[in-house]
Amino acid sequence: MFSKPLIALSITLALSGCVTTPAIQHQPFTLTVAHINDTHSHFDPVKSSFSANGVEVFNEFGGYPRLQAMVKQYKAQAQKNDQSLLFLDAGDAFQGSAYFKINQGAMNADLLDQMGLDGMALGNHEFDLNNQKLNRFVSSLDFPIIATNVDVSHDTNFNGQTNILPYQIFAFDGDHKTVVKDINNLPKHKNLVAVFGLSLQNMPNIAPHTGDVKFLNEVKTAQSTVDFLKSKGVNDVIALTHIGNATDIALAGKVNGIDLIVGGHSHTLLGDFTNIGWSNFGPYAQMVKNPNGKASTCIVQAGKYAEAIGKVNVSFNSQGEVTNCAGHNTLLSNDVFYHKSDRKPQDKFTAAQTTQVEQFIAKQKNIVIINEDSQLRHEIDTKYKPAVEKAYGNIIAQVPIEIKHERRPGDSGAADKHGSAVAPLIAESQYYWANLPQVQKVTGKKVDFALIGAGGIRTNINEGEYREGNVRLEMLPFSNYLSVLSLKGSTVKQLLQDTITATLPEGAHAGKYPYGGHIRYTFDETKAHKAGHLTSIDVMTGTEKHPIWTPLQNNKTYNVVINNYNATGNDGWTPIFTAQNKHSTRIDLIDVNGKLVGYKVKNIEKQGDKYQVIYQGKAPNCKAVNTDCDTDAQAFIDYISQTRHQLVPLPYSVVTLDRIIK
């Protein structure tokens, strides 16, 4: 492993522009890169569906045992063909499932190690616990975390950490791969590939538990690192990033010398999936011109939740220039298919129907049927699953038909204008809960509407029995508490305008996309993927059966309920921070010893890159015994158990996004 002094020396040399060593020539060669990203602890398969020759098929995609089986195939092919191969993870292995809530990173390390990764980027959700636990996770890995623009030297939790590297250099001789530990003594007559890593430069505004870790500018760090590596004789350079596909494209247009970007963060399943009834999510292995106008960078990303794996072949000439870059993402399916989403035995495909689907899949390049790796499946089922199943608790509702969540309208196809059906239900539950008499007694406020960011919601609501654990452990796993605050109508309007606009570009990170409860809006795109404006915002003053919509007034003050993460202005909800910078009316709601307690906020200050909530008195302590901070999850549990035993979508839409269809 590289030591801290060598890391510091490497960055210093890069920033000083020290170019002393001539580039080492090598023979032209092709490198295969298998890659995953944003798996979010989805160790089990994800229930899904696709279209086969016009027939809707309900199936399952992915899961770690299925990923493992595919990776083993790739590695076996590489060995047979004497082919150079890297297997990379672009970050956000943490969060997103009940397994993570219970095991807090230990299971991630166990299973990722078994997959034989060559390196992983540092995602924002890796900071969801605390730096002590993150340090423990990093230390337990058999592969490095590669994070060039992340400086952990100021955070005492990372003292002695040697497994967070600025780059990793690999020497290839066909399928034979070795790690180069001394950049000043590079092996001769081998093909050298360097992988450096980039995390979000605004990480403190995205992840609330970054401690004293520093995050450097993405573009400056990338260019100085590439220059340094090339000065030492390493011509073939890969950036392993967790910054989002739109930012990857921008990076390629600002930095010279990156050959391949393997990305994550935006959950972008690059490629045209219209053949299975999905969307075209943008070109896989897109070539983007560098600022010098000569070379180009190839860009890939592989979706989310361990549903798919990407595989790209990159060919280099003797000068390290990319001569060809091609590949695709592959969705990993099981072989049991149903006609309906509840997957009842009577709706299972017949043998003949199954054969037809199998024949269809066999003709597609972006979907494959593959059995799970039996060893990894056995370990999950025996070592981890029993505790997870025990934690799910009581049944609180029946779901007659699957309710789908997507972050941004249009992601499931051009005809989709309204986006998530889950987010409005959650926002509605928060409006309902905040107006319960016992909650109003604490806040002293009647709430007018609720707002929620799409990224805080991690799952669909599957058909069948719905339990408390589906909410706390899976859908709303972040243990956020609800905040009630007063905002001007103009602030709400600015918030909607800013966050929607930020998510319009293809490949943009859409976690900040806003939904509401008892509020609706229409947004018209005026410049495809770049700009648009709100045409209406209405507040609901009636009931679900008899809604009455009244236009939002700029000068009127509204009481709004939002989870504490967004209520602080994180993830680009900056107008809310600005509104509370000098003075706040906000009250944070937390359960302490079975009693709801309100914590009054004085204001929010910007301290370095972070927003810091300043309380009028004692601040909440979510680590304290008998303190439950996940009132956002509790609100949804109370709402559906008290009012929606049959859980179905709201009868009206709260979001309408009219996009320009090219």
Secondary structure layout plus pairing:
Elements: H1 4-16, E1 29-36, E2 46-52, E3 55-61, H2 64-80, E4 84-89, H3 98-103, H4 106-115, E5 119-120, H5 131-140, E6 145-146, E7 150-151, E8 164-165, E9 167-173, E10 176-180, E11 191-199, H6 203-206, E12 214-215, H7 218-231, E13 236-242, H8 245-252, E14 260-263, E15 286-289, E16 296-301, E17 308-316, E18 322-333, H9 351-362, E19 367-369, H10 374-390, E20 395-399, H11 422-434, H12 437-443, E21 449-453, E22 464-467, H13 468-475, E23 482-488, H14 489-502, E24 514-517, E25 519-527, E26 531-540, E27 549-551, E28 557-563, H15 564-567, H16 574-579, E29 587-592, E30 595-607, E31 610-615, E32 627-628, H17 631-643, E33 655-658
Parallel strand pairs: 1-4, 4-5, 6-8, 11-13, 13-14, 14-16, 18-19, 21-28, 25-33
Antiparallel strand pairs: 1-17, 2-3, 7-12, 9-10, 9-11, 15-16, 17-18, 20-22, 21-24, 23-28, 23-29, 25-26, 26-27, 29-30, 29-32, 30-31
